[in-house]
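Before surveying the methods themselves, let us examine one representative protein, written as a sequence plus integers encoding its fold.
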Amino acid sequence: MKTTQDDIQLLCGLYEGKEASFRAIYDKYFESLFLYAMKVLNDRIVCEDIVQDIFVSLWTKRREAKITSLKPYLFQAVKYQIFNYFRNNKFSREDLTRLNIVDVSMNVIQKLEYSELDQMIRDTVVKLPKRCRHIFVLSRYHHKSNKEIAEELEISVQAVKNQISKALAFLRNNLHHEEAITALLLLLF
């Protein structure tokens, strides 16, 4: 993996003890390292701790570290910490094998983000009242028009619209602000 000029400058600043360089590395890589860990562990708190520990170690050992390529170094550190987590918690060989097949490409990270959001939406949809949930699922997951749903359930088109509006409001109120915006955009289109 090729090291970018930006990463080389950040590493130089890190070795010199420049907090701004460390902060820039943190800002640049925290999210992707966290999502990489989440792909394997699916435990937000553990993953945040792992990534935070890596950055603490990066700062405290900055003078001894012989890092030639920043991004691979950081991802290898996450992989190593995940392995230690599995080992210390007596996870199965299957769990360890799963760790070895994780792909860190942006495409996978984007799929993970979508998958997480989709699961949050589905978990929230399950909490809707039965009739509202049924209409919402027919509309958004079975891609039926309001008219088709109205005919199938023998209700008015306006009743379908009301139930979908009710479902969207429920989602908006039960998801975090950023998640709600993204979820509603996904569900509207």
